[in-house]
Design goal:
Layout lengths: L12 H6 L12 H15 L9 H10 L5 H5 L3 H12 L8 H11 L13 H13 L3 H12 L3 E3 L1 H6 L11 E5 L4 H17 L2 E5 L20 H14 L10 E6 L5 H6 L15 E6 L1 H8 L3 E5 L1 H8 L8 H10 L5 E5 H15 L3 E4 H7 L23 E2 L5 E3 L4 E3 L1 E5 H4 L5 H18 L6 H10 L3 E5 L1 H7 L7 H29 L18 H4 L8 H6 L8 H14 L14 H5 L13 E6 L3 E6 L19 H12 L10 E4 L19 H13 L4 E2 L2 E4 L5 E2 L10
Parallel strand pairs: 2-3, 3-4, 4-5, 5-8, 12-13, 16-18
Antiparallel strand pairs: 1-12, 2-11, 6-7, 8-17, 9-10, 14-15, 18-19
Helix pairs in contact: 2-6, 5-7, 5-8, 7-8, 8-19, 10-11, 16-28, 19-22, 22-25, 22-27
């Protein structure tokens, strides 16, 4: 029996897994999931995995069939490959849940060309990743295999899936591109969106610089069509460029909250929008400067400025003008056309759309730029709102060629598994190993079809190491999400990620005698970035947190001063190092909770295509951990914001922070609702967005709402750039 003719009615593992959701004597029958896991291997994996007489025979088959990268294999002796397999096998890796095994074999395991048989198990995929990212360095391959088989490190989905395959897609997760205010640039942007969507991954596009609807073109009044028609073209492009139907193309469009088309931009996502303008699949994001919060707080009018006029006055595209600093000057400048709205009315429109659809994402652009140690300006983010890197605009001529090649972004992501990394025998060495794996991705990535992306990657060498499993760690160690202990733990953990990624990047710069572009103009080079670490101690102060980090090196101000001197002397290889992406299916394979946010359910229900429902119990679920696994929908979102804010202090890029709301708010959760309706209102979202801004949060991802009908609004269906 092979995968293609597997009779699902004859297997038992789905029914066994489904029994988790049926309490027995008030208890969750977790043993049924273990029975399902065992049955899955017996009934599916074992009979449908191609067998070989020896490892040599297996590799001969894979090479002859063009399944694995022959050039990668040529970097190593076969005796070393055998040794690597032995090292991995001695760890006796086992999936802990049915969901983890099912997800791996359904989505990640290499199969024969006809899909009839599995060609690898988890150990094989780990070895392929280790060999690929080590690029011939045997010790690094051993180190990487050790990190991955212990699930301390998880490459991003495209990296983990494609590493070592002869016929593979790109290793990068997503892209950021931008358009300027001319037809050549718009045309090139649409072409770039098609090309990048074909490669795979989500595409973020900044349209802030485009002139508004009705603006003049070469003296013709009312000629410009504005951003919405361009958004429709982009949505159609993503629908068309979908990797031969294998996946839905995915993109997000950003504009400034001060763009004259902002209301039309938001209206295009409404359920009742006219079909000519309605956006069904394109995601929306807005960049929000400090000035907007000030105008809202004061209940003032706000002016929306013509991008064409602003660029003409300031000599640079609208997105690159500091609106908070220049707002009053722009208001007073009669040469800049402007329109007026009430700031609070616009705030209400944003909240209403978030209630209805989960959009738009919010990028607190001044917050991001204040924290940015790199020379240049952050003007947008990506499809999951965690990538924040400086960009520069391109200039395109009538032949669609670059007369000025700007800098755009490709995202090279990976994640630490917090529970397992905290048990690492050498925390710092683990992080260095991960940085070296990610460095190989950025070094070998070359998106030639979009030169601005290739240029940005080659200059920046940027990576994004993040984390998953925070709630699992809290529950396992009996900490309530949002407690003082949980916040200090989060701060300490991400401080360590920051310290060790800086150490690793500095070491690589020293080895290669190379730094990222314009390192000399950064706050790393002048040392000011390190002041907050040198001038105060970040050692944990709470007893429980001290115990959790017992045996783990915590750098002192003197250690930070030493690192500061090393970086000022030899530089950093990577322009950016840290970013916390959302975790899709890969967190299940790691048998942990996704990203940094709380779980949704103690036993999560997933609807799988062609299969039906699969249930996934929260990691380490027991009578002891049960009280610490409160649903995100029953959690005060200020606690979530506080946890993310503790991490954000140390993360040079951003984090995908989702707000989880109930349409009927639990009694007593938010004190401002004592004498008002218990239904979620736009006021609730207004307050929470402002709270996040004041806590230093750079971005807010989706708003997910659990309705009284047990539906979810604003659920993220996009796996494109999930880790």
């Amino acid at each position: 029996m092979s995968l293609t003719d597997l009779d699902l009615s004859q297997v038992t593992y789905y029914d066994l897994n489904n029994q988790i959701n049926i309490p027995v004597n008030g208890q969750i029958p977790l043993h049924k999931d273990q029975e399902a896991l065992a049955a899955f291997f017996k009934e599916n994996v074992q009979p449908n995995t191609m067998q070989f007489d020896s490892l040599k025979d297996r590799f001969n088959y894979l090479l002859e069939g063009n399944y694995v990268d022959a050039q990668m294999i040529d970097h190593y002796s076969f005796s070393f490959i055998e040794r690597l397999y032995d090292v991995v096998a001695k760890e006796h890796f086992q999936f802990k849940t049915f969901m983890a095994a099912y997800k791996f074999y359904a989505q990640y395991a290499m199969k024969t060309n006809d899909g009839a048989y599995y060609l690898e198990g988890y150990n094989d995929r780990v070895v392929m990743n280790a060999l690929f990212y080590a690029n011939g360095n045997e010790q690094l391959a051993l180190d990487l295999a050790d990190e991955m088989i212990h699930q301390r490190y998880q490459p991003a989905t495209p990296s983990f899936l494609n590493a070592g395959r002869a016929r593979r897609g790109e290793l990068v997760s997503c892209f950021l591109i931008q358009s300027t205010d001319d037809m050549n640039s718009i045309g090139r942007t649409i072409n770039s969106a098609l090309q990048l969507s074909k490669i795979g991954g989500g595409v973020g596009i900044n349209l802030t610089n485009l002139r508004e609807s009705g603006a003049p073109i070469k003296g013709i009044e009312g000629a410009a069509s504005g951003v919405v028609p361009v958004m429709k073209l982009l949505e159609d492009s993503f629908s068309y460029s979908n990797q031969l139907g294998q996946r839905q193309g995915a993109g997000v469009v950003y504009i400034s909250v001060f763009h004259p088309d902002i209301e039309a931009f938001l209206a295009a996502k409404k359920e009742n929008a006219d079909e000519k303008i309605r956006l069904k699949t394109l995601s929306l994001g807005i960049t929000v400067p400090d000035k907007f919060y000030e105008l809202v707080q004061n209940n003032d009018d706000m002016y929306l400025f013509s991008p064409y006029d602003v660029e003409r006055e300031y000599g640079k595209p609208f997105a690159y003008v500091d609106l908070t600093a220049e707002y009053d000057h722009m208001v007073a400048n009669d040469r800049i056309h402007k329109s007026k709205v009430r700031a609070r009315n616009l705030e209400q429109q944003i909240s209403r759309l978030q209630q209805e659809s989960g959009y738009p994402y919010i990028i607190n652009i001044d917050t991001a730029n204040r924290a940015n140690p790199i020379d240049g300006q952050i003007v947008m983010s990506n499809l999951c709102s965690e990538i924040m890197q400086v960009q520069t605009p391109s200039v395109i001529d009538d032949d669609q060629q670059y007369t000025t090649l700007g800098r755009d972004v490709s995202c090279n992501l990976g994640s630490t598994n917090i529970v397992n990394l905290m048990a690492s025998p050498d925390f710092g060495h683990s992080i260095e190993t991960m940085v070296r794996a990610l460095t190989y991705v950025t070094d070998t990535s070359n998106i030639q079809t979009v030169p601005s992306v290739a240029n940005g990657n080659q200059l920046a060498h940027a990576i994004g190491l993040g984390a998953m499993g925070l709630h699992a760690f809290f529950a396992k160690n009996q900490m309530h999400y949002g407690s003082k202990d949980s916040i200090e733990f989060t701060s300490t953990y991400f401080m360590l990620l920051n310290y060790w990624t800086l150490r690793a990047s500095n070491e690589i710069a020293r080895e290669r005698h190379e730094t990222f572009y314009h390192f000399d103009k950064s706050r790393y080079a002048d040392g000011s970035y390190f002041d907050r670490y040198v001038n105060q101690s970040w050692q944990p102060k709470r007893t429980k947190v001290q115990q959790l980090f017992s045996g783990i090196f915590i750098p002192s101000p003197a250690d930070w001063a030493q690192l500061k001197a090393a970086v000022m002397k030899d530089g950093l290889y990577h322009q950016n190092r840290l970013a916390v992406a959302p975790n899709g299916s890969i967190s299940y394979i790691n048998d942990t909770t996704a990203s940094l946010h709380p779980i949704i359910n103690r036993v999560e229900e997933r609807q799988e295509q062609k299969i039906g429902k699969i249930y996934y119990p929260a990691p380490y679920l027991s009578n002891e951990t049960l009280p610490y696994y409160e649903s995100a929908y029953d959690t005060d979102m200020r606690h979530v914001i506080d946890v993310y804010a503790a991490a954000q202090v140390h993360v040079d890029q951003g984090m995908s922070l989702t707000l989880f709301m109930r349409s009927t708010v639990p009694a007593g959760m938010y004190e401002w609702k004592t004498d008002r309706t218990d239904k979620m209102t736009t006021r609730d979202l207004n307050i929470l967005r402002t709270y996040a801004y004041k806590q230093g949060i750079k971005s807010l991802y989706y708003v997910r709402t659990f309705t009284d009908n047990d539906d979810e609004i604003g659920v993220n269906q996009c796996e494109s750039c999930s880790i």
